[in-house]
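idk why but the lab printer keeps eating my pages so im just putting this in chat instead. protein + coenzyme A:
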Amino acid sequence: MEILALDRSRIPEAVQVFNRENAPFELVAKLTVDLFESQVASKSTFDPGTSFLAVEDGRALGFALGCAGQGENHVADPAIGAVDGLFFPAERLRVGDALLERTIETLKARGARTIYGFASQPHYPFWRGIYFGAEPVCATAYTHAWAAFMAHGFEHHQQSFTFLGPAEPKDYRTDLDYEVSPLDVSTPWLRESWKGLSPRVLTSRKDGEDLGRVGFVFMPWMSERRGVAMAGIYTMWVDGKRRRQGIASSLMNRLFELLKGEGVTEVLVGTTVQNTAARRTYEKAGLRFVAFRTGTRCEVT
Ligand SMILES: CC(C)(COP(=O)(O)OP(=O)(O)OC[C@H]1O[C@@H](n2cnc3c(N)ncnc32)[C@H](O)[C@@H]1OP(=O)(O)O)[C@@H](O)C(=O)NCCC(=O)NCCS
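predcted complex ->
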């Protein structure tokens, strides 16, 4: 087995690996060379010096994408390393070892002090709208990848519930005003992270005061894979003084109404396991648990 730099000439092989490894997961879009180019390789965070492809007898077996995560002021910070994707066959654990070891070593050489394993903290350099929604984090069902992180000194850093369900509106508070606006993606990091997508925000107000908001995005590539029009929720917030008054539930139902009007039939969202308030809100809106996801972290010594 050889570990090669994942440079542009190797993209078709990485795409094959990605599709083969994610074939069981309906919540992962089918990748094409063009999609890999636009959502991964063309971004300033993509680094063939820290990303590797494992090849044996001319056949690509797996790949790992090492890059810098988002630091202060929305700028890539080499001290925050990220392995934002590790794909290899379950029956070939040594392929994962070799890929991870090489990626960690090169990220360390670039100054990484903390390395995240497919977690949200580096703030989604790649894969938004491709891998389990708008906030890609390693699927725990892809057991051997997060086990490989564990085997290399990474620890659980976050565990998230993923919820999915129909955009089926129920009643919402009509004493509030609702407004949709585009998400402000004014920093280069946010522009790249959201590339190819049009994130929006639905805000609820009363007497001109913002009470809460929900961020959402149409996800064309995942829609194509599942054969239904899908949107992802990437943020939800209600003013601390206004909680438990049905504002988040109203936002969800107003959002569903809006999405239904645009032809969207399915909505996906993730939240950390500790966030009971968010979980109850999503369940009350009719979404159901479909996947568990685990991001990992390792302090570099
Ligand atoms: C999560 C959040 C948006 C909920 O907003 P909210 O307006 O208080 O929610 P609602 O009043 O519409 O409540 C929706 C459901 O969740 C339940 N719920 C809300 N907060 C809860 C809490 N702290 N504990 C248990 N249940 C809670 C409500 O009881 C309600 O269910 P019910 O009608 O069966 O009783 C709000 O707590 C928040 O902004 N939290 C901080 C930001 C955050 O965590 N966002 C989610 C990121 S994924």
